[in-house]
Amino acid sequence: MSLLAYQRGCLRWHQHLRCISLYPDSQSRLPKTSHRFSSHHHIPSIKKTRNIGIIAHIDAGKTTTTERMLYYSGLTRRIGDVDDGSTVTDFLPAERARGITVQSAAVTLHWPPLACDTPDHPNIPRSQHPHTINLIDTPGHADFTFEVLRSLRILDGAVCILDGVAGVEAQTEKVWAQANKYSIPRILFVNKLDRDGAAFERTIKEVGSRLKGWPAVCQIPWWEGGKGRFTGVGDAVNLCALKWKEGGDGKDIQKFTIAQLVEEDSSLREEIIKARAALVEALCEFDERLLETWLEYSDDSLAIPPQDIRNSLRRCIIDGSGKLIPIFAGASFRNIGVQPLLDAVDDLLPDPTERPDPEVSLGSIKGGLSELLQGKLSIQALPNKQVMKRAAPKTSIVSQIEACALAFKVVHDPRRGILVYVRVYSGSINRNAALWNTNLHVTERAQRLLQMQASDAIEIPHITAGQIGVIAGLKFARTGDTLMSYPGVNLKTGPPSPLNTLQLRPIDVPPPVFFAAIEPHSLSEEKNVADILQMLLREDPSLHVNVDDESGQMLLSGMGELHLEIARDRLVNDFKAKATMGNIEISYRECILSPTSVHRFVFDREVAGKKGIAGCEASISPLEKAHSDEDFIVTRAGNSITIRIPQTMPDESPRGGGSLPPDLPISTIQAALVNGAVAALARGPRRAFPLHGSHVALTFDPSKDFFGSDTSPAALSSAARIAVQGALKEALKSGNVGLMEPVMNVVISCDEATLGPIVHDLSSARGGHVLSLDNDGNDDRSALERLAIDPKRIYAPADPFASTTGADTSVPGQQRQVSARVPLKEMVGYLKHLRSLTGGRGTFIMSVDKFERLTGPREKAV
Ligand SMILES: Nc1nc2c(ncn2[C@@H]2O[C@H](COP(=O)(O)OP(=O)(O)OP(=O)(O)O)[C@@H](O)[C@H]2O)c(=O)[nH]1
């Protein structure tokens, strides 16, 4: 595409908008030149930044929509196609081959393009000024829910895409609920309205009933002649209709005012007027300011200026509760509806400063990041007073934090090496800054900072608070790590305790429930395969690798069969590892049935030519036991580990006095002991499955376990590991090790006719417990009663193709949902079975509920 054509496309769209804005003269301010291909880095203003994600059920059209967004913003010169594997955001070969998104890709685009700027004016829509949109594409498959969660926590807003034929699907509900939990403001795009069977009205009703928010219909579909081809949208905010040229790239849009529609399509005009009235009414229920405006205009909903409506929509969604859901319409694949959706991102979704203070934790202390930075969070004294003595007073240690960032994604880019995507929450990460990793306790230098624009990267000097950027060349940082820039500290020990353990927005990694053995083709390949696996783990912390102590076998575990299959593809096809992955099997767990005695071990060996001596005591028991407040407690993989370090008594220590040296702070001792215990818990004594639901109590008593400079972190880890293994052996000997299996929460969507066979199959053949059978109609009432809204009042234009049978379209189709708890073992291969039971229409999602003890024949069958 030529520069001129690009520029025309951008101007054409915004000219339409200007025609319908309050300021018709703003057209004259359009710029004469485009800066689109300028190599200058645009410095984004925080108020004009949007960190948004696209969430949806698999195949709803996230990637297709993203590709259009990149194209219209000028980042790409042609539209990528999911079906021929030429998209920008699905860039892993494994993703391209399957046409699904696995890793969330983040790209930065400007909307409207930088060329389309106009002077600021409070009454001009935000979308008339270029905004920096950091777009995070999230995966839709249930196996990758964790990946979705991980990206959700760094978002300030989200666009939820629905398939206009399938309506609200199970995965959408799940992600929607998660977005509620993280209070993420959202707008909704009903996509695929060009497809046969598209049902906008039914979808809107489902939004009300299943997503439990009030649908605020901002756009309605425009079907040619009322029943023909999907050609554009009626716009209830701006009181106009937009028609896209058939077969074009979506830049040629014709706009019709309400007056012009009298001739063009009078029934659409009527419907837009109805939609405007319904929209104003809905907003007035939630927003008093609009109610006042409405009264000022003598209850004339058509007279309210569009900007008042936009401001009201914004106020209604900004708390992220999802109580009101602005709805837009389109068909991305036909290039219809994407530019107004981008405008809605600018106009309705919040900038980073409008979001709540991000949550932080420092050990057991929790609070907001700005609270911490303002010295309002009380940082408690640590058990070891000697460490505290060395630390500066708390306000001054906090004031030195230069930047705090969350690494939300690690990607291996074939051209640029390892890229770590970060969101900066405070301060600014500058090129070459030393970054302390609060999870790994290492310092790394941010040698290169980049901004990703489609598949291009631009070098930038810093990444400031509120922005998303990429750090290239880090050797250790993993997805989920917190990075801190703290000038002038010891690079080995990092910022003073407890700041060195600060976690931004921590999330729990769900337990892996499947595993497979990885076999390198030869001994010489082992190291290379292990390195590649480490790389995969940096990218995706929901994958786990354990090396079996006895057989030396590498076991890779993950959250679903597809999750492991994709990991295998990455390993073998992308990284060219010479290895084979064995069968995917269920990952059972082992548990301790009664407490063991205390096992003490003193590790005393040379490791890599360096002497290492350290002691430790361990006992293990079922998890129920309560702990004393003094203990340091961590939870790992469903087990808890407590560490007790009694007061140091200098003269009683076996060697070198009892005072701990500065380079062995208490947090390093704790981390080393935890690592040792975690390693021991990874392999149970009975069947080599990981331990679950167990509690390890470790004691490190410096008066007998500390041996001066010979006590290294490695020696501490080994002492803890061997002491825990001793306790586990005792449990096995006394017959106190049980087996546990993963039990899943399963939600199946099917139609009324197949409900009976599905329920029967679940409860008789699969040993499941059916928890509920929801009929959408019934669910409607209960959900909406909670909102105190009559479902009949939800406005949606009638579907032209739906009601040939005369069915009541106010009640969504007779879709049913079965919720059940079923052992994972019985769910292997279930999709195929469900398809045969439902003629291919049934779908299901599942997630781990918990691990349950196995007894009797089920235990024997493992
Ligand atoms: N008819 C029609 N097909 C569409 C539309 N949008 C997307 N599709 C098709 O739907 C399929 C799925 O689209 P994607 O964009 O890959 O969906 P996704 O939500 O990114 O899927 P995952 O990455 O697997 O989560 C592809 O075959 C698209 O061509 C649309 O507006 N109309």
TrEMBL record:
What is the annotated localization of this protein? Answer: Mitochondrion
GO CC terms for this protein? mitochondrial matrix
Q: Does GTP-binding count among this protein's keywords?
A: yes
User: Taking every annotated instance into account, which residue ranges of this chain make up the domain Tr-type G?
Assistant: 47-353
Which segments cross the bilayer? none
SMART domains to which the protein is assigned, alphabetical = EFG_C
| PROSITE patterns in the record | G_TR_1, G_TR_2
Lineage, top-rank taxon, reads Eukaryota
The record ties this protein, via Pfam families, to: EF-G_D2 (PF22042), EFG_C (PF00679), EFG_III (PF14492), GTP_EFTU (PF00009)
Q: Which GO terms describe its molecular function?
A: GTP binding; GTPase activity
Residues where GTP binds: 56-63, 137-141, 191-194
Q: Which UniProt keywords apply?
A: GTP-binding, Mitochondrion, Nucleotide-binding, Protein biosynthesis
**In its UniProt record, which GO terms are filed under biological process?**
mitochondrial translation; ribosome disassembly
- Describe the function of this protein: Mitochondrial GTPase that mediates the disassembly of ribosomes from messenger RNA at the termination of mitochondrial protein biosynthesis. Not involved in the GTP-dependent ribosomal translocation step during translation elongation.
Q: Which family does it belong to?
A: Belongs to the TRAFAC class translation factor GTPase superfamily. Classic translation factor GTPase family. EF-G/EF-2 subfamily.
Supply the name of the protein. Answer: Ribosome-releasing factor 2, mitochondrial
Q: Lineage, please?
A: Eukaryota, Fungi, Dikarya, Ascomycota, Pezizomycotina
